[in-house]
Design goal:
- The protein is mostly helical and 172 residues long.
- Helices cover 42% and strands 9% of the residues.
- The protein is built from 6 helices and 3 strands; from the N terminus they run ααββαβααα.
- The protein has a 3-stranded antiparallel beta sheet with strand order 1-2-3.
Length: 172
């Protein structure tokens, strides 16, 4: 079944029924779903695009040839849909969880979590939560004293560039 997705009826169906986006992917025999490109503040809409043909998509393939492209769009980037944000209450307008910004923020969060796990492991704080409040305060104080000691020694030996590299001394 061929569907001209540029027609106004399809766009009106898309705006009136959010599940139409998923049906559209299955009708066009797409093994991939639409990619949330951005939100349009002026019209309070989400802009969806083809994940294989749009260069800002994480699944972008420069040499991808779509056999159904003639049904989607005459542009270079394939399908592009605008949907009313009211039809997608599961997506947070202020922080869409499928956007590039959200994925970047969540990737940054994992970086921070890796650093915290490094601190717990290398500074012997992995069993920190099993202790009482006084022991936790004492352990943190020991870690801070050791950090200051490393910075002081690095400065006195004439290598101030090692003052912030506790990893160098902690791994030994």
């Amino acid at each position: 079944m061929d569907i001209d997705v540029n027609s106004r009826t399809v766009c009106s169906m898309l705006n009136s029924n959010p599940a139409f986006l998923e049906r559209m992917n299955s009708v066009n025999n797409r093994p991939f779903s639409m990619f949330l490109l951005t939100k349009v503040h002026a019209t309070y809409e989400y802009l969806w695009c083809c994940p294989k043909l749009h260069p800002e998509s994480p699944d972008y393939e420069p040499n991808f040839i779509c056999e159904m492209k003639q049904h989607c769009s005459k542009g270079n980037y394939g399908r592009t849909y605008r949907t009313n944000a009211d039809n997608f209450p599961q997506i947070n307008w202020n922080f869409p969880q499928f956007s590039k910004e959200a994925k970047g923020f969540l990737a940054l969060r994992t970086t921070i979590e890796r650093e915290i796990s490094w601190l717990k492991r290398d500074l012997k704080m992995e069993s920190l939560w099993k202790r009482g409040k006084k022991n936790v305060i004492a352990q943190v104080a020991k870690c801070l004293i050791s950090m200051h000691l490393v910075a002081n020694v690095a400065h006195k030996i004439g290598c101030p560039e090692y003052a912030n590299r506790i990893k160098t001394f902690a791994k030994q």
